[in-house]
Amino acid sequence: MGLSALTPPKSQDAVHETLLEFHDNRLLIDLCGEFDRNLAQIEHKLDVQIVRRGNMLSVMGTGSARGRAAAVLQELYSKLEAGREIEPGDIDGVIRMGHSETAEHGLPGDQMEMFRGGEVEIKTRKKLIEPRTAAQKTYVQNLFKNELAFGIGPAGTGKTYLAVAVGVNMLINGHVDRIILSRPAVEAGERLGFLPGTQDEKVDPYMQPLYDALNDFLPAKQLAKMKEEKTIEIAPLAFMRGRTLSRAFVVLDEAQNATTMQMKMFLTRLGEGSRMVITGDRSQVDLPRGVPSGLRDAERILAGVPNIAFNYFSSKDVVRHPLVAAIIEAYEADEAQ
């Protein structure tokens, strides 16, 4: 793959050095990043020192950290050889993911291709999406394998983003005919009808995170056409009553704000050939005091039901700004007291 690891002489072992040789200098420049920012990120995350020497990188540090850094550099270089670009989030993802293997059983041919070699990739029209933590990787696998899956955890862990990415992938590959994205409009409640504007103008502020995700995966003109043709629908949870959703990829976001009756109503919309994903954060319930969260009840009632996957995330899976993870951990610690 154009890369080789050199075993240093015994005299070098004392200074804890691993040498990596790269045979494509152009790719090595991309690997290092502008002003060596990629190397700096790896150094900071893994507590090592990386020095470039011609077409080689010297990795210095303790044995375990040095080995992890070398493995990260090798994997990132492989991505470059495959024609991919490296972003800061990719580096963080490779460091978190390690080299755990991915099961391929029970997947259609085009979906098995995503899991070969232990990697998980979701192809959309605009970009290639990769899970950045082990929990995200398992979650994506379960989204493809199960007709009903739950993603439960704090903000910033990619629950909704990855679900929408899988939905777009399944749509463009012909596994479903449409995508339906929904959220409870808790703040508006029954007052939606009194707000000015059309139906879309009333509910758009509550649906914006779903629009943001779709804009990442589909060209603007194609997305607009799909919305016009109802191939993609974004609607409040209240508008799902009475519908049967066949051959659709359906996502309910912010499900902690659905009541028990709303959750039951939504879950029973599942039709032939459809997939359904329920995402939510149990720590951010906005329902009136005394009204139980439908998400909590669904966890309890559906536990053990076959073909339903429950996926849980923690602050370790936050892929936004590192400070977000620290904030979540601080709140979790306060609630535990």
From TrEMBL:
Pfam family, one: PhoH
Keywords: ATP-binding, Cytoplasm, Nucleotide-binding
SUPFAM superfamilies: P-loop containing nucleoside triphosphate hydrolases
GO function term, MF aspect, one: ATP binding
GO cellular component term of the entry, any: cytosol
Domain PhoH-like protein: 129-332
Subcellular location: Cytoplasm
PANTHER family in UniProt: PHOH-LIKE PROTEIN, PROTEIN PHOH
Family statement: Belongs to the PhoH family.
Protein name: PhoH-like protein
